[in-house]
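Review session, final week

We close the course with one last complete record, chosen because it touches almost every idea we covered. It is Aspartate aminotransferase family protein, a protein from Paenibacillus solisilvae with 448 residues. Go through it on your own first, then we will talk.
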Amino acid sequence: MKREHLIKPVLDHHYPTIQYGKGVYLYDDQGKAYLDASSGAVTAGIGHGVQEIIDAMLEQAGKVSFVYRSQFTSEPAERLAKKLSDLAPGGDYWSFFVNSGSEATETAMKIAIQHWQEKGRLGKNKVLSRRMSYHGITMGALSMSGHVLRRRRFIPLLEDFPVVAPPYCYRCPLNKTYPACGLACADDLETAIKRIGAEHIAAFIAEPVIGAAGGAVVPPEGYFKRIKEICNRHEILFIADEVMTGIARTGAMFAMQHSGVEPDLMALGKGMSAGYTPMAAALVKDHVMEPILKGSKSIMSGHTYSANPQSAAVSLAVLDYMEKHQLVEAAKVKGSYLLARLERLAEQFEPIGDVRGAGLLLAVEFVSDRISKLPFPAGLGLTSRIIDKAFHKGLLVYPAAGGVDGAGDAVIVAPPLTITEAEIDLLVQLLEETVREVLQEISGFDRG
Ligand code: PMP
């Protein structure tokens, strides 16, 4: 292998060099165009190369890019926190700014634990999550995640936080069917709480729509209302991980708005700055902050770049752009157009077992048999084959660990919210060619 210096995800893989991006396209140094139907990692929500954001970056850089949060505050950070609170379900949120989704979920976890400590409830320090979940790559965030592959290497170093059943109706982990199930997956949280003891539990964390660990898995109607009711009854804080779903992606500014639930804490990232700069946040309801304000008056966490004015100014510009171009509405309208097109694809290809999602966070799950929903053998690497073939054709889609515990195949389709219908048509055409060719390649595989 050639000696290099940049550590890339797969060390012996060739990654094209991108020279610039415009709208939904990225262009490499060979002149090849890529239709970014994954918004990178479901991040570039307003597309690439937007002039208004570049202008806002330059304007802030001309004033000051960095101040240290222990010494100063800044106007962009103050304005951004107020704006997020105004937009969030029910308002009344404080913001703690960080730099990645992992830091956001981990900060939310720490604040939840501190909340109980300030109230003298020192034993409440476990965080429950769901078996199909991804809340980040750092040790604390991984401890709260059910993503088998990303955890495996570090299991001995992780906190042994319990997980409960996910709301994965396509393959119900409890072998039930909605609505006859009576939301048994939500009640599984209560069973776990009773087993562990609420006096040991600080919080429950969940993605409103499961992303990388399942592929745009939308919970059944009433699920989060039940979850919140269970959390309230047992004095457990509810953290919504909106890192992937937040900031208009699902056709609402926050995906929790679809279920009418106001989380005690939220984690935001990705779409918050739409990829123009690292930016993320833990949002904390006023009642969660209250004992901290009365007590130690300081959150025992933070990073050097937390609340830096440069990233805050970019994030404000992204939110302004979204409002100006009505991108919440666009996610809804373009999302249902794309969903209908993907559903038509499923009529063409027997191995497409499920098409699902919300707004422009959609996914296609593949099965070797539609009736039994049996996944393809892992050794076939179907998801990778589809991602690679699409990439070759100039289409970017995002891998998801479909199936229970990642034992299945799914790809997420989540283009920038600015995508046009004509661009969606091209996206679907490229995906159709990809699926056809990959299925031909594997047509003789051994189902045993
Ligand atoms: N939570 C969710 C739901 C995510 O999708 C991700 C990233 N895929 C994270 C947390 C972690 O975010 P980051 O990669 O920015 O640390």
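Two points worth writing down before the exam:
Residues 327-348 form the longest helix (22 residues).
Residues 143 and 159 are 5 Å apart (CA to CA).
Good luck, everyone.
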